[in-house]
Amino acid sequence: MTEPQPLVVHITGARPNFPKAAPVIAALAEHPVRQLLVHTGQHYDERMSEVFFRQLGLPEPDVNLGVGSGSHGAQTAAIMVGLEELFTAERPDLVVVYGDVNSTVAAALVAAKMLIPLAHVEAGLRSFDMTMPEEVNRLVTDRLSDLLLVTSPDAIAHLGNEGVHPDRIHLVGNPMIDTLLRHVEGLDTVGVADQVGLDRTEPYVVATLHRPGNVDDPADVAELVRAVHAVADQVRVVIPLHPRGRGRLEAAGFMDHENLLVVDPLGYVEFLGLVKGSVAVVTDSGGVQEETTVMGVPCLTLRPNTERPVTITHGTNRLVTRDSLPGAVTEVLAAGRAEPGSTPVPPLWDGHAGPRIAAVLARSLGL
User: Fold this and answer.
1) Which of 37, 95, 274, 300 has the fewest C-beta atoms under 10 angstroms from its C-beta?
2) Does residue 260 contact residue 239 with C-beta atoms inside 8 Å?
3) d(CA 151, CA 171)
């Protein structure tokens, strides 16, 4: 009688999780394990989640909890209830979580309370800004994780400072970059420009803005509108607008600039194609800082801090304020895009993080 294969359960729930999970799931399929893919439904819009499964070659989720939107507490609680029922019915040998969203911390809490080993992909990132819900999620998840799989050397230092034993920390690189490198050569910059209604001959800046620090407080929103309009005075700005904060931006007159093109959220390859063809990106997203670093696209991060400082020291990213943003765009437009391959890229962001992560997970399972 053959031994049953160990069960690994992957938890995804929001758009940033999917390109991180895809290479791990594919690489782990080469090992003698059973895998279960859970989509919590934290992002419930088709363009924000299901399209990613198709484009990234992810299998259809085995379980979709369908929790939808809600406050942080309500959403996290609903995910915990669903995962506790699942882990009771299908006892995992290992739970793998990704990034810093509510699904991540909810799964970490359930696994810890049920004494199920936990692996955190993208561990150790720190903004040191406790007003960010994601920072709370990172700290709690890392404290509860048995395996901490880190994307950059600074994350190792953060975890060491927090007392994590070195044996639990593994520098594996960035699995999201595996996914990016698999698609980057085939990105259709012309096709996506046509799709969103851009003139192919004109330069443009891509903006992605959704963080609470930019879109929740009316005073912040008013400053953001002024800053982005000052950018649009200089260059065409196209913004795939996240549902979060859209109403407040519209009410503040965000769309009232003829050089600002607002489009619905795009699929993974369409968005990357838009970024690849741009002269610069203005963002408050974490993942976009990483993607632009590898593609060599100038990135202006509209935040006072970043949990990804390696994109500044080894990439194209710089932090800006709302006041300094228009001037920073002027500088980028004057400098132009760097030659492909001429900007630094962090160590191990080489397209092979998935296999390295799978090897660590397999060893932890005694395989």
Assistant:
1) 37
2) yes
3) 6
Instruction: Say which of 10, 43, 165, 210 is annotated catalytic.
Output: 210
**How many other CB atoms sit within 10 Å of the CB of residue 290?**
27
Contact indicator for 29, 35 with CB cutoff of 8 Å: yes
- Please check the confidence at residue 48 and state whether its pLDDT lies above 60: no
Q: What is the 3-state secondary structure (H, E, C) of 121-167?
A: ECCCCCCCCCCCHHHHHHHHHHHHCCEEEECCHHHHHHHHHCCCCHH
- Residue 248, amino acid: R
pTM above 0.85, yes or no: yes
Tokens found for residue 251:
């009410």
Cα–Cα nearest to 343, from 304, 316, 311:
316
Q: Based on the residue annotation, tell me whether 210 is a catalytic residue of this protein.
A: yes
At 140, list the tokens: 């709690």
Question: Which tokens hold the place of 65?
Answer: 């909890």
> Taking the C-alpha atoms of 8, 366, 169 and 349 in order, what is their torsion angle to the nearest 10 degrees?
-70
Q: What is the 3-state secondary structure (H, E, C) of 186-234?
A: HCCHHHHHHHHCCCCCCCEEEEECCCHHHHCCHHHHHHHHHHHHHHHCC
pLDDT digits (tens, 9 = 90+) for 268-301: 899 999 999 999 999 999 999 999 999 999 999 9
Closest CA to 236 of 259, 266, 257, 263: 259
Tokens of 47: 């363009």
Contacts of 48 (CB under 8 A, 6+ apart): 14, 15, 243, 265
Instruction: Report the alpha-carbon distance of residue 209 to residue 42 in Å, rounded.
Output: 19
H or E element, residue 112 = helix 102-113
